């Protein structure tokens, strides 16, 4: 199939280009080398077109004879402050809307969209007395006292985290999360208008070779790896018991190839899948494992916290297995060991 891959120079995009080409697809890559993600010295991978997906004329040209669009181009990360809001809207919301309008002009009916677990906000919890509950927002005074787990919104009691499924309600906490939800909504609207078919892949915590090194927009795995490389202990926030699912970038690329191949024959409209390893890890365990493998100083659990962080988010991989035949092949023990020596981007 002929695939237009947006964000082809990015951490995940580069791995998708490799995996899709190896699977026999013709990949046309486009990337604007956004400075926030790429710095000022990054170079485009061979054959990737330098361009902005908000340019309708460029899209009309690139979409000729394309079967599937795999849309990865986005401003990522949690952002730094409210000054980041227009950037998320401009690149993620407007970029996706412009792309979908161009797909309607050229009759391209299949879309694979990079979404994220951030659409869920906090994960899923059960209260022994009140059953399945959305957790009450964490209070500053609790956090200051080191009480990091959210409570039941009804009785205020202890609640237990569970794996989140794709039917969970949206609860964005950052501009990035809001823009990922917007992308899914625009794609669903485009499906209705154009009889299109879209698959949204909700990535959990991506890591692996080529991930951007320590920036304000980097995920925790790169931050810890960079600290250890400087000989410093990883700074673990809260009490280190926050749950996440770390999914290796090679598995994310495989999930995209599965979606590219499924989206035509798939049900009409938008379907969303968690893309995760299916293994739950605490942030503290991740830091300890990386420090051990790198022979670095022990992590420091510092009790600091960030207002926008969710406490626990772990995913069910079941729907992706049933709907796409996708199952992660690289567990976090193996992947984190490899991360110790993997090349990062931006160094
Ligand atoms: C991350 C990404 C998000 C992406 C999502 C799913 C970033 C900044 N976040 O979200 O964009 O959509 O995965 O792929 O890229 N922490 C520490 N020490 C640090 C930094 C963080 O202990 O120095 C802790 C945080 O408090 C949090 C956990 O690590 O509990 C994960 O943080 P982070 O990787 O920043 O964000 P996610 O919310 O998991």
Automatic annotation (TrEMBL):
Domain of life: Bacteria
Residue ranges annotated for the NAD-dependent epimerase/dehydratase domain, each copy included: 3-138, 166-275
Pfam family, one: Epimerase
Keyword Isomerase: yes
Sequence segments annotated as region (Disordered): 128-147
EC number: 5.1.3.25
Protein name: dTDP-L-rhamnose 4-epimerase
Organism, scientific name: Brevibacterium marinum
Taxonomic lineage of the native organism: Bacteria, Bacillati, Actinomycetota, Actinomycetes, Micrococcales
């Amino acid at each position: 199939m002929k695939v237009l891959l947006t964000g082809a120079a990015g951490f995940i995009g580069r791995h998708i280009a490799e995996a899709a080409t190896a699977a026999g697809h013709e990949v046309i890559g486009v990337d604007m080398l956004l400075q926030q993600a790429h710095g000022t010295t990054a170079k485009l991978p061979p054959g990737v077109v330098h361009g902005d997906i908000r340019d309708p004329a460029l899209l009309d040209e690139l979409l000729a004879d394309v079967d599937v669009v795999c849309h990865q181009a986005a401003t990522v990360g949690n952002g730094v402050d409210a000054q980041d809001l227009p950037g998320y809207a401009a690149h993620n919301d407007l970029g996706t809307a412009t792309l979908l309008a161009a797909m309607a002009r050229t009759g391209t009916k299949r879309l694979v969209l990079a979404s994220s677990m951030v659409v869920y906000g906090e994960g899923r919890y059960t209260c022994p007395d009140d059953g399945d509950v959305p957790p009450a927002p964490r209070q500053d005074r609790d956090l200051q006292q080191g009480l990091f787990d959210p409570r039941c919104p009804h009785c205020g009691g202890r609640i237990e985290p569970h794996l989140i499924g794709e039917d969970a309600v949206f609860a964005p906490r950052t501009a990035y999360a809001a823009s990922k939800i917007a992308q899914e909504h625009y794609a669903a609207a485009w499906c209705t208008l154009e009889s299109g078919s879209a698959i949204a892949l909700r990535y959990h915590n991506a890591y692996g070779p080529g991930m951007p090194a320590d920036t304000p927009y980097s995920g925790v795995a790169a931050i810890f790896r960079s600290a250890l490389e400087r000989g410093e202990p990883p700074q673990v926030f809260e009490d280190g018991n926050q749950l996440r699912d770390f999914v290796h970038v090679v598995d994310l690329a495989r999930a995209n190839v599965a979606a590219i191949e499924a989206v035509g024959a798939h049900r009409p409209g938008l379907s969303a899948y968690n893309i995760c390893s299916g293994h739950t890890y605490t942030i503290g365990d991740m830091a300890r494992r990386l420090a051990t493998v790198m022979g670095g100083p022990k992590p420091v659990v510092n009790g600091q916290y960030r207002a926008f962080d969710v406490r626990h988010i772990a995913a069910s991989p079941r729907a992706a297995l049933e709907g796409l035949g996708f199952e992660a092949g690289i567990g976090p023990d193996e992947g984190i060991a490899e991360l110790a020596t993997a090349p990062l981007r931006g160094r």
